[in-house]
Amino acid sequence: MTIPTGSGGSTGSGGSTASGASVAGPVDLAEFRAEVQRWCRENVPSDWRRAQTGASAEEFAAFQQDWFQQLRAAGYAVPHWPAEWGGGMPVAQQVVLYQELAAHDAPRLVLGFVSIHHAASTLLVAGTDEQRRRHLPAILDGEIWVQGFSEPEAGSDLASLRTVARRDGDTFVVDGQKLWASGAAHADWCLLLARTDPDAPKRKGISYFLMDMRSPGVDVRPVRNAIGDSHFCEIFLNGVVIPAENLVGPVNAGWQVAQATLAAERGMTMLELAERLGNAGFRWLVDTCRTPGPGGGRPVDDPRVADRLAELETEITGLRALCRGLVERHEADTAGPADASVVKLFYSELLQRTMDFAVEVAGLPAHAELRKPASSGWESGAWVLDFIGSWEWTIPGGTSEIQRTIIGERGLGLPREPAASA
Amino acid sequence: MTIPTGSGGSTGSGGSTASGASVAGPVDLAEFRAEVQRWCRENVPSDWRRAQTGASAEEFAAFQQDWFQQLRAAGYAVPHWPAEWGGGMPVAQQVVLYQELAAHDAPRLVLGFVSIHHAASTLLVAGTDEQRRRHLPAILDGEIWVQGFSEPEAGSDLASLRTVARRDGDTFVVDGQKLWASGAAHADWCLLLARTDPDAPKRKGISYFLMDMRSPGVDVRPVRNAIGDSHFCEIFLNGVVIPAENLVGPVNAGWQVAQATLAAERGMTMLELAERLGNAGFRWLVDTCRTPGPGGGRPVDDPRVADRLAELETEITGLRALCRGLVERHEADTAGPADASVVKLFYSELLQRTMDFAVEVAGLPAHAELRKPASSGWESGAWVLDFIGSWEWTIPGGTSEIQRTIIGERGLGLPREPAASA
Amino acid sequence: MSDVAMSESELAELHRELRVVARDLLRRNAAKAGPDQTYPTVDWSLLVDTGWLGLEIPEEFDGAGATFAEVAVVLHELGRAAASTPYLGTAVLGVGALGLLEAGAARDELLRAVAAGEQRPALALPTGDSDGDVTAFRLAAAPVSEGDQPGAGRMVVSGSADFVPDAAGADRILLLAADESGTPVVVAVRPTDPGVTVSDRPVLDETRHLGTVVVEGTEVDPGAVWRFRGTDPAASAASARRLLDRAALAVACDSLGLAEAMLEATVEYAGTRRQFGRPIGSFQAVKHACADMHVKITVGRELLAAAVRALAAAEDPAGPHDQEISVAVSRAKSYLGAAAVDIAGAAMQLHGGIGYTWEGGVHVYLKRALLGRSLFGAPAAHRARLAARFTAL
Amino acid sequence: MSDVAMSESELAELHRELRVVARDLLRRNAAKAGPDQTYPTVDWSLLVDTGWLGLEIPEEFDGAGATFAEVAVVLHELGRAAASTPYLGTAVLGVGALGLLEAGAARDELLRAVAAGEQRPALALPTGDSDGDVTAFRLAAAPVSEGDQPGAGRMVVSGSADFVPDAAGADRILLLAADESGTPVVVAVRPTDPGVTVSDRPVLDETRHLGTVVVEGTEVDPGAVWRFRGTDPAASAASARRLLDRAALAVACDSLGLAEAMLEATVEYAGTRRQFGRPIGSFQAVKHACADMHVKITVGRELLAAAVRALAAAEDPAGPHDQEISVAVSRAKSYLGAAAVDIAGAAMQLHGGIGYTWEGGVHVYLKRALLGRSLFGAPAAHRARLAARFTAL
């Protein structure tokens, strides 16, 4: 075709594929998709939801470790890692992998989430060779990590954290308290932010450590969350000794390390969540809407219900495309500074809206679903619990309010708030 | 009945009337309602909407003056004024009056709105006897007032106004520029805020004047609004001389005068607007929903449309009750500092939501309604124009954002923003 | 009810006092709860001692002779406290049903026993969205078998109702049933009667105790079949409808109370919690969200007041028509059901991490708001009832 | 279309260039508009000169041989500029219809004339919500009267369409009609033909020129009845449906463009306008509202891209099915139709008083967004089409 763009006569059909994935050719991807589908049919335990409903903490952990090793055997556990460490899957294939795991309602990797994402990206981006050799293979063997960032007085305002690490020869001695440490009860190691220069401006005096959770002085206490689970923990740190070799990056550069490693893992994890919501999650919602109520009528035959389904499915479709785009831009290093915030904000509030609707449309019986399966996300079909759990996405990792500020300031270039005079 | 409240055995049926009005007895009110109904049937011109559609500025003004005199003859023009000035109607009767005027779709008093509300309450609350004697009877005879508060750089931040009034013997000489002066083209007099002490803190150096619009140096230029009308004006002031006797309240106390007089007129004017929306406005919306479309179906038979009607009617019912409550609390002097903001915010956004829905449900034909009747509110049935006009309620008089801040700070006691360092 | 009319301002003052006393009592009662308990319990004995149980019971049966307007005040305060109590099932639904029935020895005796705290009734009725059928049980003549006393007129009742407030623990179950002509009646059974099964129906909202009532061919005496006042079947149908309206409105009172409590807790937290060197309430994102909560509560309060006034005046010959009462109730229930969930959700969001903890207690309110949104009709069901007025004609 | 496939990145680059050129051209063109004009005009000659008119016309007829994907870029930029132009009626709908028809001398000649700017077609089709009927005109055999040449096969067409883009001013009106068997065809008439009335239909959005087309018993030659490609009636129905999808999607492109323009204008204004001693964009109420606008635009952009890809690939045998295209279009149209109104409305709010003035120009975008929301199907109508997939089964 000859289009007057100034670039002269490039020609071509203009036809493009509907797929957003772009790295591998379409044939490879189709073959790979078939392979993952086959694997899922053979390996996803058909009854895992029932078995995980009401599972003890130990049963949950054992199931998660087993499932992780099953994925590892297939090469699906850490596809995003570099090839030398056991990954090396092209991004377009990772997209397919997560799409198919979601489509086949595979269990989620909950226990190892921080290990394979946050811990690995920290080690890969900012760790030493020694640190990588020590931990990456261990993670593949099941080493569990927890993130020790937030504190009681440092939630949204993470930079005001108070946990202190004092240099003492070849070691640092840590005192303080961490909160919202997800999965700390099972953790072997901790990604720890602590203040090493109390006199520096807030973000400039923080260092990043790898802390052995079996160190003396580490005390983990469970915190029950809003649905009664104890997945979150407080970690009390009393004179905990960390060898200086467990420092990640330079002293007082912990804030930058944390930012770099947080950004590194956002694309694909968000894509996985979006696919979960768009596959099994939305399917169960449609099922709920098609289930006749006490009067015999199906909710979906109420045009108001069908309308909301159409609206939510549209938004979820947008979300999934957005996540594929984010992954591609991450890969091409063209992502904008607020792109991840857009996805996180939209996902978390869409999840919440969807679950709110599910609760309402499911009516009274939804309230009698007292437990949700472990190893599932917040779209499990136990709608009331899912809805309440959705605040786990709108609050941690930067509340929705914080995300809007980031989008406004970093994404759109709007002026910052004047500094508080207090 | 004997209820254990600690107050001891008061007895009574507990039955209360569904009416919110409480000052006059039920019998009086029913009689008065019948009287107003009869008057409306006899006096509201049946064809005023058609006649006012496409009316010139002169036709509009003449119609408004006629209608005002008609209301005046019935004792309905300034019911909220004190008896000695021609009002004196009990609040409960005023409520009935505005309910019935709305129910009978009487023309609104648009031209004289500032005169009978803002100007009158300024004179009554803060004016001198001489000022009252000079202007209140004149207003009854048709004197038109405009509010000269806002300026190009002082919109939401009214206190930063720049128009200056310099003392010069027995007069003040005014230079500056006013904006959003609603109806200035027809106005005889202006309620003017101007800075008399440039060195005082923002709110402390402002004075309140009565300015004759025929004074030399007053130049009025129309500003077209978003629907193409020129109701708003700019007022340029070049060396305008105002006699010192036209000062309202002490020098530099203009801010307090403005606050007091703004609060004084809010209850009943909001009630009138709520009744307008709840009566003719909502009736036309229902009519629109019952009008068969090109395919022959009525929008209202789509359960999604009927659902929205039910939701909007519920909110409008709440609004109307809220306005009655505000009027009663104003009367009893028990209104909270943010009560008027709650009503203004809820009304303006509800109006906007309602008109947005009306535009959507009316479809393409709504866009071919190119004019709305003058003397009507923003619920005239020319839905696209009504919708756009609804921003006249969410922006002026304190934007919705400002109202939310007032509610948060004055209503709920939340802390103020830290002062800007700039 | 006494026949001395109270002025509107006297009534307002009475309600204010009732409210103050109730709030104070609930505050003191909550303080007695253990540190691990996230909600207070208002048990049977407290309901008896306060006299709340007998508020609507006529004075001749040792009650206070008040109206639903006063019951609404108590419901509102119980909602604010998120109190776990059998008040809804017993005093609001049970007593409410008895109050609409023809006088009679058995009914009167039960009312007197409830006022004294000696009997605990519950009302088995439809609890969900179903708008058509107001009765969940069917009454029929018992098959005549050999040896029967001719003309004894024994009846058989069957049916079931789910999510019935405070059913388990009640010693009288009042079944809202249709007789053979379709006229609503109330059939009084005991949980121990043959064919009657009352079981717990645990829900996530731990402050509510709901139950399932299944009745399979239970034989009852004619004396256990109680008719609504007025012999007219239409009047009986209206009374049954009134019971559902009353149930929906009771939950709306609760929703308003808990929404208020959530706003107050959020304002309190936002005024003290500091992040970025400022109280978080000084940020517009928080402040404006609180303002929106306040606006919703203010509007909901007006809608509720109108519905409560209408229902309380229902027995007044000059009072509102049945249709007006139902409309007012559906407005209040649909608006507050949704608003309370939105407000409790916003409270959870604005409390940040603390709001998401079990100990923070916001979840107690959110779960109660969610259950209340569905109980006795979701907002969509009530709006459908309102919308029928626009589609007709 | 050429048969040389372009890679996805080459195509993206091509679109980027087309976009840059179009935006620049529209900016320069807008600068030429008078100070009182609140929107720019992109007239016929400019459409011809830019080659935008013939983008989708095959190269053999002197067009560019591009696809809807490139047309979408132009539509998007015209929306950003809120340009007044006959592009929608002529190039998108008129050329779009011709492209789906069987080749034939008359059609081919018209395509060539359009590419050269010598003929200006418009397509008369249903423009509102009606989802059932895709044709607004009916074709029948003309009654045989005395003196007729036997077998001349003259036909009669009747019907009407309202709010037809760029109908007035067109010199060929293509009627989307159903023949006697109900199969969709295109009937080409001239506004001067007996029985054809084309009149202006002024709307508040002054940037759009809509018209009413009324055809009353107009006789046409068989040569003026053009069939869709493929003899299959189902294929013809699919083509007619495709035309409506294309129309809806074209408006969605416009909506995205104008929403982007409104966000940019608002960010610009909020960064400079000061109140209370600060730029208003530093207040969270403004900043967070802008963030929400940005999120909506970002999501809408993805939905639009998916629909444009699907429609552009429709002729590809390996491309998406008709149903998939319609679904993608309805998602984009419903989402962006609503989003553009919300965003233009927020822009008006955040611009404060200036936003409400005529000169401020925000109203131009708001009116265009509102009209676009309704044109070729309101969000509710498109969601109803999506929802049918859930209610089926």
Fill in the keyword field for this structure.
heterotetramer; A: 422 residues; alpha+beta; Butyryl-CoA Dehydrogenase, subunit A, domain 2; Butyryl-CoA Dehydrogenase, subunit A, domain 3; 3 domains; four-stranded mixed β-sheet; four-stranded antiparallel β-sheet; 13 helices; 46% helix; globular; C: 393 residues; Butyryl-Coa Dehydrogenase, subunit A, domain 1; eight-stranded mixed β-sheet; two-stranded antiparallel ribbon; 11 helices; 50% helix
State the oligomer. Answer: heterotetramer
How many domains would you count in the coordinates of chain C? 3
Radius of gyration of chain A: 23 Å
Question: What is the fourth-level CATH superfamily of the largest domain in chain C?
Answer: Butyryl-CoA Dehydrogenase, subunit A, domain 3
Instruction: Tell me how many strands of chain C there are.
Output: 10
Distance between the termini of chain A: 63 Å
Q: What is the total number of structural domains of chain A?
A: 3
CATH architecture of the largest domain in chain C: Up-down Bundle
Average pLDDT rating of chain C: 93
What does this entry look like structurally?
The complex is a heterotetramer, with two copies of chain A (422 residues) and two copies of chain C (393 residues). Chain A is α+β, with helices and mostly antiparallel strands and 422 residues long. Chain A folds into three domains: 5-116, no CATH class; 143-252, Beta Barrel (Butyryl-CoA Dehydrogenase, subunit A, domain 2), CATH 2.40.110.10; 262-411, Butyryl-CoA Dehydrogenase, subunit A, domain 3. Chain A has 13 helices and eight strands. In chain A, the strands form two sheets. In chain A, strands 1-4-5-8 form a four-stranded mixed beta sheet. In chain A, strand 2 (164-168) and strand 3 form a beta hairpin. Chain C has three domains: 3-119, Butyryl-Coa Dehydrogenase, subunit A, domain 1, CATH 1.10.540; 122-227, Butyryl-CoA Dehydrogenase, subunit A, domain 2 (Beta Barrel); 233-391, Up-down Bundle (Butyryl-CoA Dehydrogenase, subunit A, domain 3). Chain C is 50% helix and 14% strand. Chain C contains eleven helices and ten strands. Chain C has helices at residues 8-31, 44-50, 68-81, 87-99, 105-115, 233-272, 284-312, 322-350, 352-355, 362-374, 379-391; strands at 121-124, 137-141, 155-165, 172-178, 184-189, 196-200, 210-220, 225-227, 274-275, 278-279. In chain C, the strands form two sheets. In chain C, strands 1, 2, 3, 4, 5, 6, 7 and 8 form an eight-stranded mixed beta sheet that branches. A two-stranded antiparallel ribbon of chain C has the order 9-10. In chain C, strand 9 and strand 10 (278-279) form a beta hairpin. Chain C is globular. The mean pLDDT of chain C is 93. The interface between C and D is small, with 4 and 4 residues.
